[in-house]
Specification:
This protein has one domain: Roll (Endonuclease I-creI). Helix content is 47%, strand content 18%. The protein is built from seven helices and four strands, in the order H-H-E-E-H-E-E-H-H-H-H. The chain has a four-stranded antiparallel beta sheet. Helix 5 runs antiparallel to helix 6. The longest helix is centred in the C-terminal third of the chain and has 17 residues. One of its GO terms (molecular function) is endonuclease activity. It comes from Candidatus Woesebacteria bacterium GW2011_GWB1_39_10. This is LAGLIDADG homing endonuclease. Keywords: Endonuclease, Hydrolase, Nuclease.
Length: 173
Amino acid sequence: MSAENQQERLISSDWIVGFVEGEGCFSVGFIKQPDRSYKKGYKTGIQVWHEFAITQGASSLNALKKIKKFFKVGNIYINKRYDNHTEHLYRYVVRKREDLLKVVIPFFKSHKMHTQKKEQFERFVKTFEMVMKGNHLSNEGLIKIIKIAENMNVKKDRSELIRILREHMPNIE
């Protein structure tokens, strides 16, 4: 197989799916914005954001560049490390809602994953669709989004997001 054919195989849809299942992450985050409640997108005092990311060490930066070229959206950021690690980390990140809506979500809907990442993606999409419908603009809708998101990653303390929300809005159940 020629080097050119190997490059074509490297950036195939199946390769992207496998790479993301092993190294990717679909995240939903929440940022307190109580001083912006006068703005339409911050009525609850909480901003909801979505992120698709893949993290690799510096020695695998080329893989992230190929993924960025494949999707034609997102950016690559460096996370410099000065501790006992031997290389810096790089993250390919897509946060822009339009790029998630038109590129990332359709790709993974048509190229199915087969691991636990599939469930993470489904929750990501569900919360994304709720935000696109404006559900995050009411306390009730925001709570539903948080409850879905808090179960996305097994590493998270499942009650942590609700605890933070209760501190911000004490009437939350």
